[in-house]
Known about the structure:
This protein is 19% helix and 30% strand. By secondary structure, it is of the alpha+beta class. The radius of gyration is 46 Å and the shape is rod-shaped.
Amino acid sequence: MANLQFESTINNLVKLDAPMNKCPAPRWQRKAMNKDDCTQLTLSPLRLSKIKTPQKRSRIGSGKTPRQTPKQTPGNKKAKSKKAKTPGQSVNYQGDRFIPNRSEMNIAVSNFKMTSGQNSNTSSGHESPESGDDDGQKQESLYSTTMKQLLNENTIQDSKILKFKKNAPKVPEGFSNNLKVLYTSNCSSTTKYKSHRQIPQAADRIMDAPQLRDDYYLTLIDWGAKNLISVALDKQVYLWNANNGEITHLLQMDNADEYISNVSWIAEGNVLGVGNSLGQVQLWDIEKQKCLRTMSGHAHRVGSLSWNSFVLTSGSRSGVIHQHDVRIADHHIGTLNYHTQEVCGLKWSPDGKYLASGGNDNLVNVWNGTMMNAPSPIHSFTQHQAAVKALAWCPWQPYLLASGGGTADRHIRFWNCNTGSCLNGVDTNSQVSSIIWSHEHREIISSHGYSQFQLSMWKYPTMTKITELKGHTNRILSMCMSPDGTKVMSAAADETLRLWRCFDGLEKVKKTTSKKHDRSSIIAKGIR
């Protein structure tokens, strides 16, 4: 019997499936037990307020060292660390660190509350989890409301979230969601175009023009085909030779109240048309320096002139336009009477099909060039809000007209005279006195008055500003271009004439191109 009991005892000890009552618990059982204890502590945070760290005790006068705080068991320490890492309710109790709630884990909400000076815990004492949740919900709702205002309405001025210098334009009616509206901005007038050539910013030559009349409605300089510039200085007209710099005195009026109001060269450059304050138009032969004839008919001064072959058109202060054929004795062949105020701008199209006139009545009229006595224009544009003096026809599109308005308008507008429609308009922010098209590039040059007194170069049709040429100290009254299209002369109320090499690079390109072409032709001939 003793042997049998011994064998049964050995078998029971060797078996692994029997329960081990007196041995240490496995690790997974210990973790499960610690997890259950942590859950119970988290669900009942009020129990933790009763747990206090044992304080140190010491007796006054006793020589014994104070008793230290008893160390915690590994199980309790692990349970406490598990509780601290578990995301639960916000608990604030004395003697332990603060555990934030889940709402304060959001970085955006926390940053908003920190910058706005508002905290989730308003009291320094104990706070229940229910009150912490309500306060967190309030903070989140306040945060979402503020974000909606910033994104949609931009009512808060001190905010920096999606806040620009200028607010977006108001949304048109019919859009329910403001964030689905697309906005476009045309920055062509302020963005500068990168030119492929170098444009000198300073004037190449400055000449004095004493007694140059400060009158916006007059055109007192013009550049002829023989490279002669005519300049009207009060009662006198001078010619400046751009080739050698010689100055010639052409004419002078006798009476003190009389003055020259306009000068204009014929296409060949050998005859100069001169308009004066008496309502007369004189024709001068440059080679002989002699007045060929005087054509009368206007009741007031002649402020504008334009040539179309042998037909000279003159505009008066009375608003009447006369057509003169300089080849015949009875020169007056037509009258155009539609403007109600002074005609300060006249331009024939390159093909002679249209005549454009601009007046102080803010009108731009386009006339049929074949009808010398038309009762009304074929087009009358009323978009300008000031006097229209600057008129220029496009050299490669004869039906395209550019016009510029005065101080109250400041716009350059482009017109299709075949259809009578406005193609484009740009605000120059200053008075426009003259416009010139470039023959080599798709560019225009405009001269301006108040308030920067500059010449502006634009890329057409985008109207991107290439550069600005500054130097005049008063408003620019007139502007003309050289026959080769490389230089521009401007006359301003500061009594100076300034020569600008706006397209000087074109001349060099032409020379190099011609040299290469000649060299290639010579080589080709040699090979043949």
